[in-house]
Amino acid sequence: MSDLPKGTFRLEGHIEVPTERIAQVSEALKDHIRLTREEAGCIFFNVDACSKVPGRFLVSEAFVDEAAFNFHQERERTSPWAEASKDVPREYETWVVD
Question: Is residue 2 part of a domain?
Fold first, then answer.
């Protein structure tokens, strides 16, 4: 059971950053995290390096609803983060808290 309100949009998963791009992606990630956390509707946004798999970053997000998540996705598409992380494999699961 979730402590988050019904209707919260959640995302969990990871990205796999090639070794030669870790520094570039990590640098861009700093601003991406800050900007996302400032978005209206962002409950939390965490991206952390995995201690067991080099280049894997664990992603955990919550937005007040799917519309807030969609706003985040639109903003992100034209950001420096989008360019830095272009073609980086992503594996996510999304759901709405019920």
Answer: no
With bands split at pLDDT 50, 70 and 90, how would you rate the model's confidence at 93?
Answer: very high
Burial 24-34 (b: 16+ CB within 10 A, else e): ebeebbeebee
Could you give the number of structural domains in the chain?
Answer: 1
Which tens digit of pLDDT belongs to each residue from 38-69?
999 999 999 999 999 999 999 999 999 999 99
Give the long-range contacts of residues 50-55, CB within 8 A, separation 24 or more.
50/14, 54/19, 54/22, 55/16, 55/17, 55/18, 55/19, 55/22
CATH of the domain at 59: 3.30.70.100
Domain that holds residue 54: 9-96
